[in-house]
Specification:
Belongs to the peptidase S16 family. This protein is α/β, with parallel strands linked by helices. The chain contains eight helices and ten strands.
């Protein structure tokens, strides 16, 4: 008895069914990514959303400042948002978005509460290190000079460099911003060493949107920042707090400014 032969089109269709099933599963399967966007920026020399000064200093003379020192952020899909292949593909072709490994955006915890607590602790540690670095640079006694940093709804350590610069600008006679809108990002430790952060291309977009003309970037992230640098925004690479201060001084005086 002969086995009936399937026609070629029918045979190919039957063979394609498992492949189509796999493709459908891949399209709708959740992926370990977050979609990130340019976030808000805040002038650390100014006030927060509640109208309170971001930096308050007691126990030492302060000086008037000109210009702005804007810390930058990114905004990402929440940790409980499901990201699928179409979302990833769409973001690859949108310069206003970036696909980032979820663990790089939310490095600890599975719940929104755990992540918020981690980010709040990282911000507090960053503020303490920024204050210590600034007072060390100015050779001021932390037992006598008190610095209060207030910035609601922002977590993580990446504002450290800008906090230190803001404290120094208020406590020093030199006008760091020099009337410019300076933006930037970077962690900092108590010794004044600047560390790398994530999402730099998105942060440069946020800086340009909010009228910055200069962006202080950790030197290790120059290439990443240059790849999608908005027109009219000047990158200034930094590795230390003192180097950032020297670069801003060179900007004011027309001297040689480091470049990527």
């Amino acid at each position: 008895m002969r086995t009936p032969r399937l026609s070629r089109p029918l045979y190919l269709s039957l063979c394609a069914l498992p492949l189509l099933g796999l493709l459908a599963a891949a399209v709708f399967a959740p992926l370990p990514f977050s979609i990130a966007f340019p976030g808000s920026t805040t002038d650390v020399l100014g006030k927060d959303k509640g109208g309170e000064p971001v930096i308050t200093v007691t126990g030492a003379k302060t000086y008037p400042t000109r210009g702005q020192l804007r810390m930058t952020t990114i905004t990402a899909t929440s940790p409980d948002t499901t990201v699928r292949l179409p979302d990833v593909v769409g973001s690859w072709f949108d310069k206003g978005e970036a696909v980032m490994p979820r663990d790089s955006v939310y490095p600890v915890g599975d719940s929104v509460k755990e992540i918020r607590e981690y980010n709040d602790e990282a911000m507090r540690d960053s503020q303490s290190a920024a204050t210590a670095a600034a007072l060390n640079h100015l050779k001021l006694d932390p037992e006598k000079v008190k610095v209060d940093l207030r910035l609601a709804d922002v977590g993580g350590p990446s504002a450290g460099l800008l906090f230190s610069l803001g404290i120094i600008d208020k406590l020093g006679a030199d006008d760091l911003a020099g009337g410019r809108v300076i933006a930037g990002t970077g962690t900092i430790d108590a010794a004044g060493k600047v560390g790398a952060v994530g999402g730099v291309p998105l942060k440069t977009q946020a800086a340009k949107r909010d009228k910055a003309t200069v962006f202080l970037v950790p030197k290790a992230e120059c290439s990443e920042a240059e790849a999608e640098l908005p027109s009219g925004l000047r990158l200034v690479p930094v590795t230390t707090l003192s180097g950032a201060i020297d670069a801003l001084g060179a900007l004011r005086s027309g001297g040689k400014v480091p470049s990527c």
